[in-house]
Description:
Blueprint: H1 2-13, E1 16-18, E2 25-33, H2 41-56, E3 61-66, H3 74-83, E4 88-92, H4 115-128, H5 130-138, E5 141-146, E6 151-156, E7 172-174, H6 177-185, E8 189-190, H7 198-204, E9 209-212, H8 214-220, E10 228-236, E11 240-245, H9 246-250, H10 254-285, E12 296-299, H11 302-310, H12 313-325, H13 330-351
Parallel strand pairs: 2-3, 2-4, 7-8, 7-9, 10-12
Antiparallel strand pairs: 1-2, 4-11, 5-11, 6-9, 6-10
Helix pairs in contact: 2-10, 4-10, 4-13, 8-10
Amino acid sequence: xxxxxxxxxxxxxxxxxxxxxxxxxxxxxxxxxxxxxxxxxxxxxxxxxxxxxxxxxxxxxxxxxxxxxxxxxxxxxxxxxxxxxxxxxxxxxxxxxxxxxxxxxxxxxxxxxxxxxxxxxxxxxxxxxxxxxxxxxxxxxxxxxxxxxxxxxxxxxxxxxxxxxxxxxxxxxxxxxxxxxxxxxxxxxxxxxxxxxxxxxxxxxxxxxxxxxxxxxxxxxxxxxxxxxxxxxxxxxxxxxxxxxxxxxxxxxxxxxxxxxxxxxxxxxxxxxxxxxxxxxxxxxxxxxxxxxxxxxxxxxxxxxxxxxxxxxxxxxxxxxxxxxxxxxxxxxxxxxxxxxxxxxxxxxxxxxxxxxx
Length: 358
Protein backbone atom coordinates (compact mmCIF):
# COMPACT_ATOMS: atom_id res chain seq x y z
CA UNK A 1 0.00 0.00 0.00
CA UNK A 2 2.80 2.39 0.86
CA UNK A 3 4.45 1.76 -2.51
CA UNK A 4 1.16 2.25 -4.33
CA UNK A 5 0.50 5.55 -2.56
CA UNK A 6 4.03 6.68 -3.23
CA UNK A 7 3.63 5.93 -6.95
CA UNK A 8 0.37 7.86 -7.08
CA UNK A 9 2.00 10.82 -5.36
CA UNK A 10 4.82 10.64 -7.88
CA UNK A 11 2.25 10.61 -10.74
CA UNK A 12 0.75 13.82 -9.40
CA UNK A 13 4.18 15.33 -8.97
CA UNK A 14 4.84 14.74 -12.66
CA UNK A 15 2.09 17.24 -13.44
CA UNK A 16 3.96 20.17 -12.00
CA UNK A 17 6.41 22.09 -14.12
CA UNK A 18 8.98 24.27 -12.31
CA UNK A 19 9.96 27.56 -13.89
CA UNK A 20 13.52 27.17 -12.60
CA UNK A 21 15.19 24.95 -10.03
CA UNK A 22 14.45 26.07 -6.49
CA UNK A 23 11.47 28.22 -7.42
CA UNK A 24 7.89 27.57 -6.30
CA UNK A 25 5.57 25.72 -8.65
CA UNK A 26 4.25 28.15 -11.26
CA UNK A 27 1.79 25.97 -13.15
CA UNK A 28 -0.01 22.63 -13.02
CA UNK A 29 -0.31 21.09 -16.48
CA UNK A 30 -2.83 18.25 -16.67
CA UNK A 31 -2.20 15.66 -19.35
CA UNK A 32 -5.52 15.05 -21.14
CA UNK A 33 -6.41 11.95 -23.20
CA UNK A 34 -8.90 12.59 -26.02
CA UNK A 35 -9.68 9.83 -28.52
CA UNK A 36 -11.10 12.00 -31.31
CA UNK A 37 -9.35 14.46 -33.66
CA UNK A 38 -9.13 18.18 -33.00
CA UNK A 39 -12.11 19.19 -35.14
CA UNK A 40 -15.84 19.67 -34.73
CA UNK A 41 -18.06 21.11 -32.01
CA UNK A 42 -16.95 18.80 -29.21
CA UNK A 43 -13.28 19.49 -29.89
CA UNK A 44 -14.11 23.19 -29.71
CA UNK A 45 -15.82 22.57 -26.36
CA UNK A 46 -12.77 20.79 -24.95
CA UNK A 47 -10.52 23.59 -26.17
CA UNK A 48 -12.93 26.08 -24.56
CA UNK A 49 -12.56 24.19 -21.27
CA UNK A 50 -8.76 24.34 -21.58
CA UNK A 51 -8.74 28.05 -22.44
CA UNK A 52 -11.16 28.97 -19.66
CA UNK A 53 -9.30 26.91 -17.07
CA UNK A 54 -6.05 28.68 -17.88
CA UNK A 55 -7.68 32.11 -17.90
CA UNK A 56 -9.74 31.61 -14.74
CA UNK A 57 -6.78 30.21 -12.80
CA UNK A 58 -4.55 33.07 -13.90
CA UNK A 59 -2.30 30.62 -15.71
CA UNK A 60 -1.88 28.32 -12.70
CA UNK A 61 -3.69 25.40 -14.35
CA UNK A 62 -3.62 24.24 -17.98
CA UNK A 63 -4.35 21.20 -20.16
CA UNK A 64 -1.88 19.33 -22.33
CA UNK A 65 -4.39 17.72 -24.72
CA UNK A 66 -3.38 14.57 -26.63
CA UNK A 67 -5.88 14.42 -29.52
CA UNK A 68 -6.94 11.54 -31.76
CA UNK A 69 -6.06 8.70 -29.39
CA UNK A 70 -2.36 9.58 -29.50
CA UNK A 71 -2.04 8.89 -25.78
CA UNK A 72 -4.97 6.51 -25.14
CA UNK A 73 -7.81 5.07 -27.25
CA UNK A 74 -11.39 5.32 -25.94
CA UNK A 75 -11.32 1.78 -24.57
CA UNK A 76 -8.17 2.54 -22.54
CA UNK A 77 -8.89 6.04 -21.25
CA UNK A 78 -10.66 5.08 -18.02
CA UNK A 79 -7.88 2.71 -17.01
CA UNK A 80 -5.24 5.19 -18.11
CA UNK A 81 -6.69 8.05 -16.07
CA UNK A 82 -7.21 5.91 -12.97
CA UNK A 83 -3.61 4.64 -13.21
CA UNK A 84 -2.17 8.13 -13.78
CA UNK A 85 -1.02 7.62 -17.38
CA UNK A 86 -3.24 10.64 -18.07
CA UNK A 87 -4.46 13.11 -15.47
CA UNK A 88 -7.78 13.71 -17.25
CA UNK A 89 -9.68 12.21 -20.15
CA UNK A 90 -12.93 11.68 -22.02
CA UNK A 91 -14.77 8.44 -21.17
CA UNK A 92 -17.85 6.70 -22.55
CA UNK A 93 -19.84 4.31 -20.38
CA UNK A 94 -20.23 1.98 -23.37
CA UNK A 95 -16.47 1.28 -23.38
CA UNK A 96 -16.41 0.33 -19.68
CA UNK A 97 -19.94 -0.98 -18.97
CA UNK A 98 -19.13 -2.62 -15.64
CA UNK A 99 -16.90 0.08 -14.16
CA UNK A 100 -18.96 2.98 -15.55
CA UNK A 101 -22.43 1.52 -15.01
CA UNK A 102 -23.26 4.62 -12.93
CA UNK A 103 -22.57 6.84 -15.95
CA UNK A 104 -24.60 4.57 -18.25
CA UNK A 105 -27.89 6.00 -16.96
CA UNK A 106 -27.35 8.70 -19.60
CA UNK A 107 -27.40 6.12 -22.41
CA UNK A 108 -30.97 4.97 -21.81
CA UNK A 109 -33.34 6.37 -24.48
CA UNK A 110 -35.56 9.03 -22.94
CA UNK A 111 -37.97 11.53 -24.59
CA UNK A 112 -35.85 14.49 -23.43
CA UNK A 113 -33.43 14.58 -26.35
CA UNK A 114 -32.35 18.21 -26.02
CA UNK A 115 -28.54 18.33 -25.62
CA UNK A 116 -28.55 21.09 -22.98
CA UNK A 117 -31.26 19.35 -20.94
CA UNK A 118 -29.45 16.00 -21.06
CA UNK A 119 -26.04 17.38 -20.09
CA UNK A 120 -27.44 19.60 -17.32
CA UNK A 121 -29.39 16.69 -15.81
CA UNK A 122 -26.33 14.45 -15.91
CA UNK A 123 -24.05 17.13 -14.45
CA UNK A 124 -26.30 17.74 -11.46
CA UNK A 125 -26.89 14.03 -10.89
CA UNK A 126 -23.20 13.12 -11.05
CA UNK A 127 -22.02 16.00 -8.86
CA UNK A 128 -24.67 15.67 -6.11
CA UNK A 129 -25.60 11.97 -5.80
CA UNK A 130 -23.29 10.38 -3.24
CA UNK A 131 -23.77 6.84 -4.58
CA UNK A 132 -22.61 7.90 -8.02
CA UNK A 133 -19.73 9.97 -6.69
CA UNK A 134 -18.54 6.91 -4.77
CA UNK A 135 -18.85 4.79 -7.92
CA UNK A 136 -16.39 7.08 -9.70
CA UNK A 137 -14.11 7.18 -6.66
CA UNK A 138 -14.03 3.36 -6.54
CA UNK A 139 -12.47 3.53 -10.01
CA UNK A 140 -9.92 6.15 -8.87
CA UNK A 141 -11.49 8.93 -10.94
CA UNK A 142 -13.65 12.00 -10.28
CA UNK A 143 -16.43 13.24 -12.56
CA UNK A 144 -15.80 16.75 -13.89
CA UNK A 145 -18.44 17.48 -16.54
CA UNK A 146 -20.56 16.00 -19.32
CA UNK A 147 -20.71 15.71 -23.09
CA UNK A 148 -23.47 14.30 -25.29
CA UNK A 149 -23.74 12.86 -28.79
CA UNK A 150 -26.96 14.88 -29.41
CA UNK A 151 -30.19 13.05 -30.42
CA UNK A 152 -29.98 9.89 -32.51
CA UNK A 153 -31.34 10.03 -36.06
CA UNK A 154 -31.26 7.40 -38.83
CA UNK A 155 -29.86 8.00 -42.30
CA UNK A 156 -30.75 5.60 -45.12
CA UNK A 157 -29.73 4.75 -48.67
CA UNK A 158 -31.76 5.05 -51.87
CA UNK A 159 -35.16 3.38 -51.73
CA UNK A 160 -35.39 3.16 -47.92
CA UNK A 161 -37.55 5.56 -45.90
CA UNK A 162 -38.16 5.20 -42.17
CA UNK A 163 -41.46 6.78 -41.15
CA UNK A 164 -42.37 4.51 -38.25
CA UNK A 165 -40.84 1.92 -35.92
CA UNK A 166 -42.40 -0.83 -38.04
CA UNK A 167 -40.33 0.29 -41.04
CA UNK A 168 -37.17 -1.07 -39.37
CA UNK A 169 -38.35 -4.67 -39.76
CA UNK A 170 -36.07 -6.61 -42.10
CA UNK A 171 -33.67 -3.70 -42.74
CA UNK A 172 -29.92 -4.10 -42.25
CA UNK A 173 -29.13 -1.43 -39.69
CA UNK A 174 -26.21 -0.19 -37.61
CA UNK A 175 -27.00 0.98 -34.07
CA UNK A 176 -25.38 0.66 -30.66
CA UNK A 177 -26.09 0.14 -26.96
CA UNK A 178 -29.76 -0.12 -25.92
CA UNK A 179 -30.84 1.40 -29.24
CA UNK A 180 -29.55 -1.72 -31.03
CA UNK A 181 -31.37 -4.01 -28.58
CA UNK A 182 -34.65 -2.20 -29.18
CA UNK A 183 -34.29 -2.40 -32.97
CA UNK A 184 -33.46 -6.09 -32.68
CA UNK A 185 -36.70 -6.51 -30.71
CA UNK A 186 -38.71 -5.01 -33.59
CA UNK A 187 -37.12 -7.15 -36.31
CA UNK A 188 -34.20 -5.16 -37.68
CA UNK A 189 -31.06 -7.03 -38.78
CA UNK A 190 -28.25 -5.47 -36.75
CA UNK A 191 -24.75 -5.08 -38.19
CA UNK A 192 -21.91 -4.00 -35.89
CA UNK A 193 -18.94 -1.82 -36.88
CA UNK A 194 -17.27 1.40 -35.76
CA UNK A 195 -18.61 4.81 -36.69
CA UNK A 196 -15.60 5.51 -38.88
CA UNK A 197 -16.84 2.72 -41.18
CA UNK A 198 -20.38 4.10 -41.60
CA UNK A 199 -19.72 5.89 -44.91
CA UNK A 200 -18.30 2.77 -46.58
CA UNK A 201 -21.04 0.53 -45.16
CA UNK A 202 -23.78 2.77 -46.56
CA UNK A 203 -21.94 3.22 -49.86
CA UNK A 204 -21.43 -0.52 -50.44
CA UNK A 205 -24.88 -1.61 -49.24
CA UNK A 206 -23.59 -3.45 -46.17
CA UNK A 207 -26.38 -1.63 -44.34
CA UNK A 208 -29.40 0.28 -45.61
CA UNK A 209 -29.65 2.56 -42.55
CA UNK A 210 -27.35 3.73 -39.79
CA UNK A 211 -28.01 5.46 -36.49
CA UNK A 212 -26.08 8.69 -36.18
CA UNK A 213 -26.10 12.35 -35.28
CA UNK A 214 -26.66 15.46 -37.37
CA UNK A 215 -23.26 16.98 -36.64
CA UNK A 216 -21.57 13.66 -37.49
CA UNK A 217 -23.36 13.50 -40.86
CA UNK A 218 -21.59 16.69 -41.82
CA UNK A 219 -18.21 15.62 -40.41
CA UNK A 220 -18.26 12.12 -41.94
CA UNK A 221 -19.84 13.30 -45.24
CA UNK A 222 -22.51 10.58 -45.16
CA UNK A 223 -25.06 12.71 -47.11
CA UNK A 224 -22.94 11.80 -50.15
CA UNK A 225 -24.20 8.18 -49.87
CA UNK A 226 -27.70 8.56 -48.39
CA UNK A 227 -31.08 9.71 -49.67
CA UNK A 228 -33.16 10.19 -46.51
CA UNK A 229 -32.80 10.98 -42.81
CA UNK A 230 -35.43 9.93 -40.28
CA UNK A 231 -35.49 12.82 -37.81
CA UNK A 232 -36.49 10.75 -34.79
CA UNK A 233 -34.75 12.69 -31.98
CA UNK A 234 -34.40 9.35 -30.24
CA UNK A 235 -32.77 10.05 -26.87
CA UNK A 236 -29.04 10.76 -26.78
CA UNK A 237 -25.81 9.17 -25.51
CA UNK A 238 -25.03 11.17 -22.36
CA UNK A 239 -22.96 8.49 -20.65
CA UNK A 240 -20.11 10.58 -21.98
CA UNK A 241 -17.98 12.45 -19.44
CA UNK A 242 -14.75 14.21 -18.58
CA UNK A 243 -12.98 12.63 -15.61
CA UNK A 244 -9.87 13.36 -13.55
CA UNK A 245 -7.53 11.06 -11.67
CA UNK A 246 -8.76 10.91 -8.05
CA UNK A 247 -5.32 11.42 -6.52
CA UNK A 248 -4.69 14.46 -8.67
CA UNK A 249 -8.09 15.84 -7.66
CA UNK A 250 -7.52 15.19 -3.95
CA UNK A 251 -4.23 17.11 -4.05
CA UNK A 252 -5.98 20.24 -5.34
CA UNK A 253 -7.26 22.91 -2.97
CA UNK A 254 -11.01 23.31 -2.46
CA UNK A 255 -10.88 26.55 -4.47
CA UNK A 256 -9.10 24.82 -7.36
CA UNK A 257 -11.63 21.98 -7.35
CA UNK A 258 -14.51 24.47 -7.36
CA UNK A 259 -12.90 26.37 -10.24
CA UNK A 260 -12.52 23.23 -12.37
CA UNK A 261 -16.14 22.24 -11.75
CA UNK A 262 -17.38 25.72 -12.62
CA UNK A 263 -15.43 25.75 -15.88
CA UNK A 264 -16.92 22.31 -16.60
CA UNK A 265 -20.40 23.68 -16.00
CA UNK A 266 -19.73 26.64 -18.29
CA UNK A 267 -18.49 24.24 -20.98
CA UNK A 268 -21.90 22.55 -21.06
CA UNK A 269 -23.57 25.80 -22.10
CA UNK A 270 -20.87 26.49 -24.69
CA UNK A 271 -21.10 23.00 -26.21
CA UNK A 272 -24.90 22.84 -26.16
CA UNK A 273 -25.20 26.17 -27.98
CA UNK A 274 -22.71 25.01 -30.61
CA UNK A 275 -24.28 21.61 -31.36
CA UNK A 276 -27.86 22.89 -31.32
CA UNK A 277 -26.92 25.57 -33.84
CA UNK A 278 -24.92 23.14 -35.99
CA UNK A 279 -27.69 20.54 -35.96
CA UNK A 280 -30.26 23.06 -37.17
CA UNK A 281 -27.88 24.13 -39.94
CA UNK A 282 -27.51 20.51 -41.09
CA UNK A 283 -31.30 19.99 -41.13
CA UNK A 284 -31.66 23.03 -43.37
CA UNK A 285 -28.83 22.03 -45.73
CA UNK A 286 -29.63 18.31 -46.19
CA UNK A 287 -32.48 18.84 -48.73
CA UNK A 288 -30.47 21.39 -50.74
CA UNK A 289 -27.68 19.02 -51.78
CA UNK A 290 -25.09 21.31 -50.21
CA UNK A 291 -23.78 18.46 -48.05
CA UNK A 292 -23.83 15.79 -50.78
CA UNK A 293 -26.99 14.30 -52.26
CA UNK A 294 -30.32 16.06 -51.87
CA UNK A 295 -31.39 14.22 -48.72
CA UNK A 296 -35.05 14.04 -47.68
CA UNK A 297 -35.66 14.89 -44.00
CA UNK A 298 -38.52 12.80 -42.57
CA UNK A 299 -39.80 14.30 -39.31
CA UNK A 300 -41.36 11.74 -37.01
CA UNK A 301 -44.65 12.56 -35.32
CA UNK A 302 -45.02 12.61 -31.54
CA UNK A 303 -47.11 9.44 -31.84
CA UNK A 304 -44.36 7.55 -33.65
CA UNK A 305 -41.70 8.82 -31.24
CA UNK A 306 -43.83 7.59 -28.33
CA UNK A 307 -43.55 4.04 -29.75
CA UNK A 308 -39.77 4.26 -29.43
CA UNK A 309 -39.91 5.03 -25.74
CA UNK A 310 -42.55 2.39 -25.04
CA UNK A 311 -39.88 -0.08 -26.16
CA UNK A 312 -37.46 1.27 -23.53
CA UNK A 313 -39.40 0.07 -20.49
CA UNK A 314 -37.90 -3.41 -20.13
CA UNK A 315 -34.39 -2.05 -20.70
CA UNK A 316 -34.90 0.59 -18.02
CA UNK A 317 -35.95 -2.14 -15.61
CA UNK A 318 -32.92 -4.24 -16.58
CA UNK A 319 -30.64 -1.25 -15.84
CA UNK A 320 -32.27 -0.73 -12.44
CA UNK A 321 -31.86 -4.42 -11.57
CA UNK A 322 -28.22 -4.39 -12.68
CA UNK A 323 -27.55 -1.36 -10.48
CA UNK A 324 -29.27 -3.05 -7.54
CA UNK A 325 -27.10 -6.15 -7.96
CA UNK A 326 -24.01 -3.91 -7.94
CA UNK A 327 -25.04 -2.44 -4.58
CA UNK A 328 -26.78 0.77 -5.69
CA UNK A 329 -30.36 1.92 -5.24
CA UNK A 330 -31.16 1.71 -8.92
CA UNK A 331 -34.76 2.90 -8.70
CA UNK A 332 -33.86 5.95 -6.59
CA UNK A 333 -31.12 6.98 -9.03
CA UNK A 334 -33.44 6.52 -12.01
CA UNK A 335 -36.19 8.54 -10.35
CA UNK A 336 -33.77 11.33 -9.48
CA UNK A 337 -32.49 11.40 -13.07
CA UNK A 338 -36.05 11.61 -14.42
CA UNK A 339 -36.80 14.49 -12.05
CA UNK A 340 -33.72 16.39 -13.24
CA UNK A 341 -34.58 15.86 -16.91
CA UNK A 342 -38.06 17.24 -16.24
CA UNK A 343 -36.58 20.17 -14.27
CA UNK A 344 -34.27 21.31 -17.07
CA UNK A 345 -36.78 20.63 -19.86
CA UNK A 346 -39.29 22.81 -18.02
CA UNK A 347 -36.66 25.52 -17.61
CA UNK A 348 -35.98 25.55 -21.38
CA UNK A 349 -39.68 25.57 -22.18
CA UNK A 350 -40.39 28.49 -19.85
CA UNK A 351 -37.17 30.53 -19.92
CA UNK A 352 -35.23 29.44 -23.02
CA UNK A 353 -31.53 28.60 -23.04
CA UNK A 354 -29.03 30.56 -20.90
CA UNK A 355 -27.41 32.11 -23.98
CA UNK A 356 -30.79 33.47 -25.13
CA UNK A 357 -31.24 35.66 -22.08
CA UNK A 358 -28.77 38.31 -23.20
